[in-house]
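fyi for ur records
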Amino acid sequence: MPPVIAHLDIDAFYASVELLRRPELKGRPVVVGGSGPRAVVTTASYEARRSGVGSAMPMSRARRLCPEAVVIPPDFPAYREQSAVVMGLVRGAVDEVEVMGLDEAYLDLTGLLSPRASMRRLVTQIRAATGLDASVGIGPNKLVAKVASEAEKPQGFVVLTREQACVRFAGSPPRLVPGIGAKTAERLDELGITTLAALAKADPDVLTGAFGPRQGPWLAARARFEGSTHVEAVREAVSESRETTFDVDITVRDELEAQLHRLADQLCKGLQKHERAGRTIAIKVRLDDWTTVTRARTIAHATNEVEHVGQVALELLREYAPPRPVRLLGVRVASFGGTEEPAPEPVQLALPV
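which gave:
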């Protein structure tokens, strides 16, 4: 029986929840995000998106692009509450569901008598129960379904075979496909590969020479819309972290260490709430020039106690001794269930702004 996979994505989820609570803002550009000097956009209504505002964009740029936008601080408890209702309906409609976040999920529709009708009923149920609209993509694998769900937002409903996806998106840039980021797209452009059709037909030796024996063939396969059909019903967390970007770069060691302890305390409270413990403790440090460094250490026994996590994180920070002002700081605990996670090499990675 051929696989049938759906991807369901709530349209502009955070902004849509806010509009339900503030109906007087309907039709106006709404941006959900922080207010600090380094705040970024969490999401934006489609009215704001038409001005070029997008997720993860610096809020300062969003305000320049759309000065009339209404900016609302995020309310994650409210988003989680609405998400629980949505995902309850999704799980009630289909047995095999892989939840990818608060607002999206993959559904295995294989074997259903009428997959399209089932998804249309589900979208109607979600709208009736929550007032939220969803876009749906249906295809033979997760990649086709994901790209299809994005193709006609908002309230999109797109069904494609793999071959149809190849034709429909042949002239699209490689970045359309999840997993192909800006740096990879830039390198492809340097090779003269600017569309998915060109990538699908690219010389394997050229791709292997530029990206290596694993990533090269993988890129070509993604351009051909070849993807996984496995829907993982339970996605177990393998790590949990807390991080923060400072409004002003930190140069004083005592202040940095105090921030580290605060993050470790927040992290451990979350771990204890979910009854998780891990053996690998890591820190993430981003300097003012965007150099990003990670350090990790695996200990003998799993822990979620702030005394242990904080002490190891502090030792890692002191061993690194940031040579420049610090822009971002994070703490992570991994290797849940006693499995060991390899520690990253102590190298510096220069990331683009």
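The chain has four domains: 5-10+77-164, 14-75, 180-223, 239-350. thats all i got for now
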